[in-house]
Design brief:
With 49 residues, the chain is mainly α. It has 2 helices and 2 strands; from the N terminus they run H-E-E-H. Strands 1-2 form a two-stranded antiparallel sheet. It is flat and about 35 Å long.
Length: 49
């Protein structure tokens, strides 16, 4: 197994940020809309469609 992959770096960053109060969930990116550059669940009632 190649230990030098991006996912290991990303996990380390997320774990480090979480220890300092950053809130996230492993599947947060599922709701990301790349065309609008927003997380759908974060847009709320802002009128973003």
């Amino acid at each position: 197994m190649n230990l030098h992959t991006e996912i290991h770096f990303e996990v380390e960053i997320c774990e480090r940020l979480a220890t300092h109060g950053w809130l996230y969930a492993d599947r947060d990116a599922v709701g990301y809309d790349g065309a609008l550059a927003v997380l759908r669940q974060s847009a709320g009632d802002t009128g973003v469609q």
